[in-house]
Write a structure and sequence with these properties.
With 147 residues, chain A is mainly beta. Helix content of chain A is 9%, strand content 40%. In chain A, strand 3 and strand 4 form a beta hairpin. The longest helix of chain A has 9 residues. Chain A is globular, with a radius of gyration of 16 Å. Chain A starts with 6 loop residues before the first strand and ends in a 13-residue tail after the last strand. Chain B is of the alpha+beta class and 199 residues long. Chain B has two domains: 90 residues, no CATH class; 98 residues, no CATH class. Chain B contains six helices and four strands. In chain B, a hairpin with a 7-residue loop joins strand 2 and strand 3. In chain B, helix 1 runs antiparallel to helix 3 and helix 3 packs across helix 4. Chain B starts with a helix and ends in a 5-residue tail after the last strand. In chain B, 14% of the residues are buried. Classes of the chains: A mainly beta (147), B alpha+beta (199). At the A-B interface, helix 1, strand 4, strand 5, strand 6 and strand 7 of A face helix 2, helix 4 and strand 4 of B.
């Protein structure tokens, strides 16, 4: 399995890679599975979602994907009546965000290692906690540092 | 030209047409690849910026594949047909698997019986940026409507809370359950409490 594209997260003025897929949770909960065109073997889910944390809330703001008939997928095509942003109140979980330099590349899933991992706990779309883990070069020994 | 040479020429001729079609489809697919996709792939896999890796991936592998398909093109056609016809059934199978709800609530986890009106009145979602519809359960309204409309006269609606979620990091979950014949028949989770592991 090829290394997979991350989602894109805009947080505190930075564009970050997000290893969590809140939109998949939405599709799963709603029992709706829109069919998108294949993107690449590096994107098995067939879309890349763009997210933003603003006012301690998680918002879905854009998507890069194409329907099977060639139409571009937009936020509004998934959430009629909402063109620019959608409050992701359906999502509860931990957002995982790799940060710093890549210390080890693994050609599979999200197994590559980075200097740090930022974890953001979200309850019903609202950020409730954050934690940064400092990863040692030796992936076996991982230190911890709280934000 | 002997018969077998003629047959070989026809076979390889058809193979050349098949290969050319696949090559054109591949190149058209490459053209459709968005710059976002290319940039993301480059950022993601550092090897893509290496000259020899690019030559290997962009020319040697496709060249070898082209030659191979030319020789065994009926097999390539069979693979493509198989992929086309099995893809849809695989997707529907995956959906069926994802829709299996193995988790069941117990009666102990039911807190109190509620009415539809109460549920709808107390579950509006407020957002300062107004990025949620003014409906009960916001963007998940359709899910609630499906549960609400499925209620039979002999079924009752209950509020539930459970700490038995199998999802990682979930300490507590809550929502609404439908009870019939003294057992929970189906439920809809509407909230989760998350615990962040700090180890």
């Amino acid at each position: 399995m090829t290394a997979q594209f991350t989602e894109v997260l805009h947080y505190k003025g930075e564009q970050l890679s997000l290893r969590t897929h809140p939109l998949s949770d939405y599709f799963g909960q709603m029992g709706v599975f829109p069919e998108f065109q294949d993107k690449s073997t590096a994107c098995w889910r067939r879309y890349v979602g763009h997210w933003e944390i603003l006012l301690d809330r998680l918002y879905f703001v854009d998507i890069s994907a194409t329907y099977l008939d060639g139409r571009e997928v937009t936020v509004e095509s998934l959430f009629p009546g909402f063109q620019d942003r959608v409050f992701a109140h359906w999502y509860s979980g931990v957002l995982t965000i790799p940060q710093g330099k890549m210390t080890k590349y693994v050609h599979m899933g999200y197994l590559s290692s980075y200097e740090r991992d930022l974890f953001i706990a979200v309850e019903n779309g609202v950020v409730v906690d954050t934690h940064t883990r400092i990863n040692s070069i030796d992936s076996e020994k991982q230190g911890g540092s709280h934000e | 030209m002997s018969n077998w040479m003629l047959l070989a020429a026809i076979y390889l001729g058809i193979g050349l047409i098949v290969c050319s079609t696949i090559l054109i489809a591949h190149l058209l697919g490459k053209r459709k690849e968005s710059s976002f996709l290319r940039d993301a792939m480059d950022a993601f896999d550092p090897r893509r910026n290496n000259f020899f890796y690019r030559v290997f991936v962009d020319y040697l592998i496709p060249g070898f594949a082209f030659f191979l398909i030319w020789l065994v093109w009926p097999f390539a056609i069979w693979l493509k047909l198989r992929e086309t016809f099995t893809k849809k059934s695989e997707i529907s199978e995956a959906r069926k698997r994802s829709e299996i709800k193995e988790f069941t609530l117990t009666n102990d986890e039911l807190l109190r019986e509620v009415s539809i009106e109460e549920v709808e009145r107390t579950n509006f979602i407020h957002d300062p940026l107004e990025a949620v519809p003014n409906l009960p359960f916001g963007h998940c309204n359709a899910r609630w409507v499906a549960l609400r409309d499925s209620l039979e006269p002999n079924e009752t609606l209950w509020e539930f809370e459970s700490n038995r979620s199998v999802l990682a990091g979930v300490e507590l979950m809550w929502g609404y359950a439908v009870k019939v014949d003294e057992r929970v028949d189906r439920f809809m989770t509407t909230g989760w409490k998350i615990k962040l592991s700090k180890s």
